[in-house]
Amino acid sequence: MTRPLIAYFSRAGQNYVNGQVRALAVGNTEVVARMIAEETGGDLFRIETVHEYAVDYTECTEEAADEKRLKARPKLRALPKNIDDYDTVILGYPNWWGTMPMAVYTFLESFDFTNKVIMPFCTHEGSGLSGTERDIARTCPGAEVVAGLAIHGADAAHARSQVQAWLAHNGF
Ligand SMILES: Cc1cc2nc3c(=O)[nH]c(=O)nc-3n(C[C@H](O)[C@H](O)[C@H](O)COP(=O)(O)O)c2cc1C
Fold first, then answer.
1. Total tally of structural domains belonging to the chain
2. Rounded to the nearest whole angstrom, what is the distance from the C-alpha of residue 63 to the centroid of ligand 1?
3. What is the model's pTM?
4. Digit-coded pLDDT (tens) for 49-73
5. What would the pLDDT profile of 127-137 be if each residue is shown by its tens digit?
6. Which residue range forms the structural domain that includes residue 101?
7. Cβ–Cβ < 8 Å for 2, 44
8. Scanning 6, 26, 30, 91, which has the fewest C-beta atoms within 10 Å of its C-beta?
9. Rounded distance between C-alpha atoms, residue 151 and residue 163, angstroms
10. Rounded to an integer, what distance in angstroms lies between the CA atom of residue 141 and that of residue 26?
């Protein structure tokens, strides 16, 4: 198995954790992405927008709802230069309003993923993956999208065995 790219979006700041707003120094998805990098030796790439989302949870949910409604494609700070080097992209994101943050669509629409394997994982507060595997497949025709991994945000730091099992199932 070749080294995968682990591309992820994650937002530190206020978030809902088990029904309470808490400030996170490192976002939940980033915690899992780092774990996957340790387990696979893959390269980490953080999908970052030029616009920074509000630290305040409620404000951020409003920004995200507007972006979803408008089908926005927020501008990214950078893209990986060498996507052709990877056969497998492990794609991480938080569930935002039942789908991926619009920035993840910007990322996916920036490349041709034909013949690549996309392994989706998300962190969430109850909704799981929602329809994101299908959203990715629609956005990346020609890619093979495998069954994703959903981790409750509050459990991110304790998800190693779940992560290991999912990776092993996919040949890592
Ligand atoms: C804008 C926004 C929208 C969200 N929408 C959902 C949702 O629809 N369903 C859900 O289960 N969790 C939702 N959440 C909770 C996040 O998915 C969860 O806290 C996730 O672990 C955050 O990951 P991060 O810390 O890597 O950004 C939302 C959070 C934010 C900030």
1. 1
2. 13
3. 0.97
4. 999 999 999 999 999 999 999 999 9
5. 999 999 999 99
6. 5-169
7. no
8. 26
9. 9
10. 32
